[in-house]
Design a protein that fits this description.
- The protein has about 280 residues and is of the alpha/beta class.
- The protein is built from eleven helices and eight strands.
- Strands 1-6-2-5-4-3 form a six-stranded parallel β-sheet, sandwiched between helices.
- Helix 3 (about 95-105) links the parallel strand 4 and strand 5 (about 110-115).
- Helix 3 (about 95-105) runs parallel beside helix 4 (about 130-135) and helix 9 packs across helix 11.
- It is globular.
- The N and C termini lie far apart (about 55 Å).
């Protein structure tokens, strides 16, 4: 493959028959991490069972000498090496450093290099290194899932966990959690354990999974307390978009502040209490 590619299934087989580099990036870090894990697992199974030929380097403050050493070292009792570099582009390396890393990639005869990043800005993707990976390897972008793709992911993940999810339950979970797959994974694990072998129904989701607007309420209270008008307005709009009416919104905010005042009074009445 060459150039920018859509994010593949996380179970796509990995082969060390070629050593073209890969750049994994995007706001959906759950799936990009899953992809990286699949690459490393497949490498361990098919190329390096001993685990002696896989290296993970921190991109921030990356030593080019160490990178070159790991890139050019001969594999030990294996067909190749795997070098993972995390967060290099996000650390905003200078143009000459990117040029040197791109040049070193040309020397990777027996090593596959994987660059893992979170969400990158357009400017960070215009540098020499990203261009070199796109020209000689593959760039896989992980954007947030939505609609049927999102609920399909829920259903597939539940099957991996040994459970079943009705379409209606998937829709309700999507409304409550959205595209935050890190949180969704935790909620699905909880739901599978709760269902104990039966299908997960919408009522189960309603009983165990708090809706996103509840979290937004806390964020709104924090914004008001910090006197951040822009953040407070943003959270208010999000709550209204989730179907919370204006009177309900006012009541939620008042409820939050009553709780805070109650804690303040308790601290004043009980001087022996710790801050925690």
């Amino acid at each position: 493959m060459r150039g920018v590619q859509p994010a593949p299934d996380t179970h796509t087989p990995y082969s060390m028959l070629h050593t073209s580099p890969i750049l994994l990036h995007g706001p959906d870090t759950y799936r990009s991490r899953s992809r990286l894990r699949a690459i490393r697992d497949e490498f361990g199974r098919t190329v390096d069972p001993s685990g002696c030929n896989s290296t993970v380097l921190e991109g921030k403050g990356l030593s080019l000498e160490i990178f070159e050493r790991d890139l050019t070292a001969a594999p030990f009792l294996a067909l190749g090496r795997l070098v993972v570099v995390e967060g290099l582009l996000a650390s905003k390396p200078k143009a000459d450093a990117q040029e040197r890393v791109a040049a070193l990639l040309q020397r990777a005869r027996d090593a596959r290099v994987v660059f893992w990043e979170g969400e990158l800005t357009p400017a960070q993707l215009k540098g020499r290194l990203a261009a070199a990976v796109a020209a000689n390897g593959a760039v896989e972008v992980f954007t947030p899932l939505s609609g049927r793709a999102l609920t399909g992911w829920y259903a597939a993940r539940v099957r991996e966990l040994g459970g079943q999810l009705t379409p209606a339950a998937a829709d309700r979970l999507a409304a409550a959690v959205g595209d935050d797959l890190w949180r969704a994974d935790g909620e699905l694990r909880k739901l599978v354990a709760y269902a104990r072998g039966r299908q997960i129904e919408p009522a189960d989701v309603g009983a165990l999974t708090p809706a996103r607007w509840q979290e937004q309420t806390f964020a709104l209270a924090d914004a008001i307390g910090a006197r951040s008008a822009s953040a407070a307005l943003r959270h208010s709009r999000q709550l209204l978009a989730h179907g919370v009416s204006a009177p309900e919104l006012l009541g939620l905010v008042a409820w939050q502040f009553r709780n805070l005042l109650g804690v303040k009074r308790l601290a004043a009445d009980e001087p022996g209490l710790t801050a925690g």
